[in-house]
Design a protein that fits this description.
With about 140 residues, the protein is of the alpha+beta class. The chain has six helices and seven strands; from the N terminus they run βββββαααβαααβ.
């Protein structure tokens, strides 16, 4: 049975949000338009769009961003960054965080307890989809 808000694990890294409202079922906000097509190894539900991971799921899928993911969780920004967007995230790697922490003379625990953590992280997010090839010199 599908429970509203249930998280289903994927074969890929991440989870999908399943919601049932009456007879209607949605997956990550997309309506299931054809349900319960049986196959030899499972079931198929058809949807009207291709699902792509959000920026948080992409960060979680890489071992280069474990500090960033911990910081996003601690700063309560997961809901914001899994919203519809679009977003462009300039994502500091673990090495970038290590250099930042060393330069400030603090450890990761101190960073995660910083009352300005959410603002520090938001400084890395643009509320638009900005592809690297579309950036021009001097653009702000």
């Amino acid at each position: 049975a599908v429970t509203t808000g249930e998280q289903a694990s994927l074969l890929a890294t991440g989870k999908l949000s399943l919601v049932k409202d009456g007879a209607a079922v949605t997956v990550d906000g997309t309506a299931v338009v054809g349900a319960d097509m049986q196959s030899g190894n499972g079931v198929v539900h058809s949807i009207g769009k291709v699902l792509l991971p959000n920026v948080v799921e992409v960060a979680k899928s890489s071992s280069d961003f474990t500090t960033l993911v911990s910081a996003v969780v601690k700063a309560n920004l997961v809901t914001d960054l899994t919203a519809a967007g679009p977003f462009t995230v300039f994502a500091p790697t673990n090495d970038a965080f290590t250099a930042y922490l060393t330069g400030r003379g603090i450890d990761a625990a101190a960073l995660l307890d910083d009352p300005n953590l959410a603002d520090i992280l938001k400084y890395h997010v643009v509320g638009a989809k900005v592809m690297a090839a579309a950036v021009t010199t001097g653009e702000q």
